[in-house]
């Protein structure tokens, strides 16, 4: 994994190098730069496959130059196909295959490749630039476009300047979500390319066109037996793991106490004759700790295992690194232990397989049980539910909040867009504009929720967390469950194969039982989280109160300051647990301070 940069803005070489050095952590093995005509290209390389300098970028072939971040897992198959067409290769990596594949097939190369990627190819004969982002948005892609001038980068920081202004709409969305979803960024005039989309820039015509090459499709449930489904899924998982184990540097896995990482590790252990290196983060608080289960998995699978325990001091020491690498406000507090996990992992391996994505496709999250219950509730006509609400005195009642929601799809949205909103102005137009597709694809409510999860949360929270935390320490994380073939296959399976009352991810459990006894892995789901509420009241209390002063709070667009201050006071007094909202504002304050961007002044 790497960092890419391309622009036609007339920066000097040193200016481009300074920009790239802001995100040098993404690719410490080589900083490459070239200028062809009016186009500057930059690249930061983390060498994983073909470590030779011949694979450094920008990489040139014929009339093309490419900067590429990610991995094409099936590049050997595409290479073989290109060789039958008469092409020869000077490297053993995927970059050369990608650019030569584009030379042959144009944008149709996107239908052939399986991987995580963000890339830009400059055709200097025809003065055109072609860019694309992978189907699930594993790799980041930011861009600026105005009046024929463009600038593209893997992260936001190099696109910031003294004139940068925050987007009030993005701040408002952040208050609800805890992140800024694509196509928005926290800055005005800078955007994210959405997953499964590509950009074609005509430099002569000064035009830019964005088109879609992949998306979730309407669900057609397979007529398939459970045993056959399990067999086909198992084969897909084995292949997804296998193609992600091609590496010229040491490889291991993240192993938590969950089903997904255990299954990935089990399959990887079967594929290789060598002992797999596995890594776990543990917590002293048993409510959050899965290290004992992970260690039991390790013993059964025969891995070289390392557990690193994380307390408040360990995590909070990483706040400066957090601010450096998460260059948009990002309020998923599990980013801190994720940073620690990658810091420890880098000492042993450079590539790590993870279980990310399993909960989305196989209905593993706790909220699926809420949806099962809510489905019955929302069959009651809305006017009756509204009338019932008149008799509930307690305004903070969760049941009363449910009564204000019109239908099950609105309830699904509220799962991802905070019910406990701090927004003075409620505006879901961004959901309707960019994410309403989830309502149209499946008849089953749980599948619709999974689809919104894949489109919204997976890309903008989970993938961002993993990418920035791993890149912070030059670790490449590969997630077999994010193989688009598995995403597509899982959606065609009957929901009952994946979810049964109080038994989530059934089909994965049954596959895992072929490697690990079910008595070991049938444990309550904890998730990868930290004791945030407690830390805010204790270790972080002084800094939180200093940051979240009246001057800062009054400058946050659309923030219900009165509501938040009450939440903050009650949390510190121990009468309520409002850690998530407090963390959102704390992270926003830290981001504003670190980047020297005043939210208030830019709004005027």
Brief write-up:
The chain has 604 residues and is α+β, with helices and mostly antiparallel strands. The protein has 4 domains: 3-212, Aminohydrolase, N-terminal nucleophile (Ntn) domain (Glutamine Phosphoribosylpyrophosphate, subunit 1, domain 1), CATH 3.60.20.10; 226-363 and 456-521, 3-Layer(aba) Sandwich (Rossmann fold), CATH 3.40.50; 367-447, no CATH class; 532-603, no CATH class.
Major β-sheet annotation: 6 strands, antiparallel
Please give the radius of gyration in angstroms. 24 Å
How many domain modules?
Answer: 4
- Fraction of residues in helix: 40-55%
Instruction: Please identify, by name, the CATH architecture of the largest domain.
Output: 4-Layer Sandwich
CATH names the topology of the largest domain as: Glutamine Phosphoribosylpyrophosphate, subunit 1, domain 1
Strand fraction band? 15-25%
Strand order of the largest sheet: 2-3-1-9-8-10
CATH class membership of the largest domain: Alpha Beta
Mean pLDDT: 93
Would you count the extended β strands for me? 19
Catalytic activity: L-aspartate + L-glutamine + ATP + H2O = L-asparagine + L-glutamate + AMP + diphosphate + H(+)
GO cellular component, one term: cytosol
Keywords: Amino-acid biosynthesis, Asparagine biosynthesis, ATP-binding, Glutamine amidotransferase, Ligase, Nucleotide-binding
Pathway: Amino-acid biosynthesis; L-asparagine biosynthesis; L-asparagine from L-aspartate (L-Gln route): step 1/1
